[in-house]
Amino acid sequence: MSNVTFYISNLLEKMTSTDKDFRFMAANDLMMELQKDSIKLDEESERKVVAMLLKLLEDKNGEVQNLAVKCLGPLVGKVKECQVETMVDTLCSNMVSNKEQLRDISSMGLKTVIAELHSCCITSCRRTCVIWDQSYTLFDRLSTALVSFHQSILTSLLAQLTSPHMAVRKRSIIALGHLVPSCSPALFMQLTEHLMGELSRGPPTASVRTYIQCLATVSRRGGHRIGEHLQKIVPMVVKFCNVEDDELREFCFQAFEAFVSRCPKEMSPNIQAIIKLCLKYITYDPNYNYDADDDEDDSMDIEDREDEDQESDDEYSDDDDMSWKVRRSSVKCLEAIISSRRDLLVELYGSVGPTLVSRFKEREDNVKTDIFSAFVALLRQTRHPHGPTLDTGAKEEPAISLLKKQVPTIVKALHRQLKEKSMRCRQSCFSLLTEMTNVLPGQLGEHIPALIPGIIYSLTDKSTSSNLKIDALAFLNVLLSSHNPEIFHPHISVILPPVIQCVEDPFYKITSEALQVTQQTVKLMRPLDKPVSFDGKPYVKIVFACTLKRLKAADIDQEVKERAIFCMGHILSHFGDQLGADLQPTLQIFLERLKNEITRLVAVKTLSLVASSPLKIDLRPILTEGIPMLGSFLRKNQRALKLNTITALNVMVTNYSDSFKPPLIDSILSEVPALIQESDMHISQVAITLITCMAKVCPSSLSKIGGTILPEVLNLVHSPLLQGGALNSLLEFFQVLVATKANNMGYSDLLKALRGPFYDSKSTDSMSMHKQSYYSVAKCVAALSMACPKEASGVVTNLIQDVKNPKSSESVRILSLLCLGEIGRFMNFEGQKELKGVIMEAFGSPNEEVKSAASFALGNICVANLGEYLPFMLKEIGSQPKRQYLLLHSLKEMISALSAESLKPHVENIWDLLFKHCECAEEGTRNIVAECLGKLTLVSPSELIPRLKKQLCSGSPLSRSTVVTAVKFTIVDHPMPIDSLLKGCIGDFLKTLQDPDLNVRRVALVMFNSAAHNKPSLIRGLLTSLLPHLYKETQIRKDLVREVEMGPFKHTVDDGLDVRKAAFECMYTLLDSCMDCLDIFEFLNHVEEGLKDHYDIKMLTFIMLARLSKLCPSAVVQRLDRLVEPLKATCTTKVKAGSVKQEFEKQEELRRSAMRAVAALLSISEVEKSPAMADFANQIRSNTEMATIFDSLQGDPLSGAVESMDTS
Q1: pLDDT greater than 50 at residue 1011
Q2: Contact in structure between 489 and 534 (CB atoms under 8 Å)
Q3: In the prediction, which pLDDT does 128 show?
Q4: What residue spans of 441-489 are helical by DSSP H?
Q5: N or C: which end of the chain has fewer CB within 10 A?
Q6: Handedness of CA 6, 8, 14, 16 (dihedral sign)
Q7: Is 571:540 a contact under the CB 8 Å cutoff?
Q8: Number of neighbours of residue 817 by Cβ within 10 angstroms
């Protein structure tokens, strides 16, 4: 006998003792033993332990019984299935016993066992299926495994709905709710028809309550499945709202809430009737007269208000009044409508908004909190789903206008509520005000005097809870930061004392919020960006003292430490000139915080803030010690610290250059080379900006960079990753370097260093260096030439000779042409007579890169030499058909680089020439023409847009496609004067979605996509008419599919594929920019079809499905059964054995993309309640190949965050 078996036998023996303490201790020891993973029982021990624990359930001592129940849980996983069956059978038998105590304890035991059961043990549970008290736990855990018992379970549970015991009816409803997600459509139909049938018979009120509760539960758990029955169910429920029974009304509104939340589209025909009912019963309070309250003086003191409240509480008490439940359920139903129907927002502001505001006076706290919650939901819906739009000319949304009109009424209603003694009420008020301030920033200015007393009351009242104070401070912070400083100047004397008091509060969260408010107050007392008449001097001392106390404290929360440092930084930045002797000791504290690893990041940010203050705070005493410390931070492996340190050093070098002695500068410069790396372009950019700044203010400091920093800079110039901000910082660096003569290297030395790799390259390959590095070096050469114009003319001559020289390598010729183009943007080439011929000769080069460089050069040279080169270029376009594409590229370069003023005199000539080529057979040429037309239109939109519209009527499809593509190039991602004109006429251009020509429709979809991506406001109002045409283009057209014979093989060609791709790309863009305007169920219909389409379309729709699962999970869950099948088909499809390698790779990529979509679907809560999804998830887990792919995606960042796709 093993030690464990012997020990267990002893425990079992003690459990038979007559002493209850022995039995208790033995059961407790057994429980501890069973919780160990290492325990293993033999068959005999298993049988004895199970028998003993089941016997202990009948123990006379309640504590022993409870311990026996606790032992059953861990025991399930330690014994064989036959023993689990014994446990379940015994517990089920006990539950039909005559002894009530045994029934109750066995019920708890069975629940514990079920919670630990695996689906493989389900055979042991069939007896529990008819036991209503346990069924909901069983279904929740094992509903899909009980499919074969569903019919008998349903029959048993429906019978229990007529039980005389309310608890039985309630448990039966819960059990039915757990059964619904996994039952078959036929069974669901049987359940709903039974409930509708019973309701239509007009049963007693108690039964009606049960059936309506059951319908609400079925809707919540079954979601969309009840949608098809709602047109029959809703009128019945509406009828029962008129029955004089408050509890029944409450259940009716709960049912409406479930219907609206789960099936918003199906509820559309009934939504007005339900809103009307909700508005009727939200004011239903037959036992209370609100008019008496309304007549009272609104300006009563808070103390008087409290006394009055106390009296009214003593006088009025009605425990039997259930009307508040009706009001609460109607409010919750309204909130569900608001949250699910943003399309009704304007209407809701007209009808629901004023009613909710009028009910802020509600006497019952629970109802009042829900009323506030409903109004907050209305405010949240008013916010644009994707933040404020940048579109110019976009009209103010009607809902915003309606809300602005209601603000005075809302504030008046809240003014009184903020004086209420109920903390829940005041917290809700602050939540509502915070949301309203975020929706309408700067619009509460005139109401500040009405809001301040309520805020002060909540901050100073001794009975105020911590959470209420935090909410009041958070609202005050939002209020201060979103309004003009002048509005608050009269109230500073009232606001500051309670805020200072909160800074000294012992609870760290209150202190933290109060420090943020203090910081905001400091900023508005003396704004640095504009002069104000307010004198903040009287308040500086108290603000400084309370912040200093927190700044010095070492034993406080990290959050408070950081907020105190930053708050003090703002005090120094705004009032440092008034601190006198307190300034330097405070700076020394900052220095100490720099030495602390925990606070150094926020200390660096704060020093940057102080150093950038226009008050020129004297930081010199701390620079000697602080600068080397900051220099050492540049070595740390903490990116945020590096970035903020470089920013701080930049500010200090600019504003305190006279304090930077050589040793201090060396301590910084020695760390810079390691920062200039292509692996982190942003840090490289700010590091180069720093050394540029140093070169400007103390040029001598860079005398030694030739052997350290410059090699890294040159490596970066030649990097293929260099572009944007990093490239611009390099250009400025080179210009400052030659202008200040900060380094021993002059203009010619730097040119040599930049161009060296291209001239020294022995490779015959013109692209031995990356293409991007040619353009980067050319820009650097041009920047140097701009700084040294006298020496530049000689360099231009040399560049022309390099292009002419037949011995020059291709890389030298390409670079020289690009350099000529970049220099030609600002330099007059009047003296270079042979340049035109050299460029035109380069157009004839056999090397495509040389041709492209020559095209770039000609276009950019035109910028500064317009009079000479533009007529030449236009003439060449007309007379050189073979070089037309390259010459049009040159024209595009010129139009892109020139300002509108410079272009205006030449628009007519260019426009006429372009229209001569808009019907070119080559699509590439037409696209260049379209881009030129689009960019020219931006120069003079009012004149040129009508011409484009006129051209739409052209009989040529090629011409129409060019015009539509041109419109695409007028839609850019930043505000432009053309926007208002486009909004009025874009509908005419989008009519080409109905064009008979396939290619015109494709470019129209691309233009539609561009508008949706860059300026959604242009098309939001047109979506109702545009979407049917968009969806039509997602369908496969058999007349566009043809077979092409390729030798012995037949190849299928789908001419409609490109149009479908454009349509699906447009749909994806609309998800991000206009989702609130989409009928998501109609949208999902087309996504579903796309899941069965061509490889390219499938890849797009998988990404869309993953995105949809994040944006609208409830709608996706409703369509899950239909979406799973195509996903399953993709994941299980196998490529034929004899296929080429590319086919295997394509299928593998398809499967991975489908699996990402599956992973996104599985992240939706309760998604596995869908039988189809649960089955597919099990199939993935059981299939080694699919499980491997799925597991590999768990660490893939794309599976956590949905793949991004730029379709613009």
Answers
A1: yes
A2: yes
A3: 40
A4: 448-460, 466-481, 485-488
A5: N
A6: negative
A7: yes
A8: 30
